[in-house]
Amino acid sequence: MFQPLFERCCLMNNLLTKKLMVLGMDAMDPRLTRKFVDMDLMPNTKMIENGACRQDIVLLGGQPTVTPPMWTTMSTGAYPITHGITCFFRQSADYLERTGYNLDSRNCTAEQFWNVATEAGMKTLVYHWHGSS
């Protein structure tokens, strides 16, 4: 899913770098962030000014808007119904009265962008990614 995007970014213009950094902030309020950026109270906003995110800083995602599904949606480009991470916990397949922690890559049924990048020959580093990493 993401491989054509990486290839287009790298081939469109020789001035574009082959490096990509994805920075996510859990529970960040986009309206408050925009207000602080506009008031010059948030330093290091060059990524926003240079068009590395939507101007309204809103992540368009799916439902439910809780941490595991949203981070997994951001890493796969798939909605929760597709990638299978829908909440913090998952019912045990073996014991119906038990639940298990759902933040486990073995529970994710979609491919994360860092795996696609690695398969395309790029070096990747994932640090403290919430969700199915």
Write up what this structure looks like.
With 133 residues, the protein is mainly alpha-helical. It has one domain. 33% of the residues lie in helices and 5% in strands. The protein has six helices and two strands; from the N terminus they run αααααββα. It has a two-stranded antiparallel ribbon with strand order 1-2. The longest helix has 10 residues. 13% of the residues are buried. The N terminus is likely disordered.
Short description:
By secondary structure, this protein is mainly α. Helix content is 33%, strand content 5%. Strands 1-2 form a two-stranded antiparallel ribbon.
How many discrete structural domains?
1
| Oligomerization state | single chain
Radius of gyration: 17 Å
Strand order of the largest sheet: 1-2
Which whole number gives the mean pLDDT?
A: 76
The helix-strand sequence is HHHHHEEH
So what's the overall shape?
A: globular
Main sheet makeup? 2 strands, antiparallel
Percent of residues in β-strands: under 5%
Provide the low-confidence segments as ranges. Answer: 1-6, 8-15
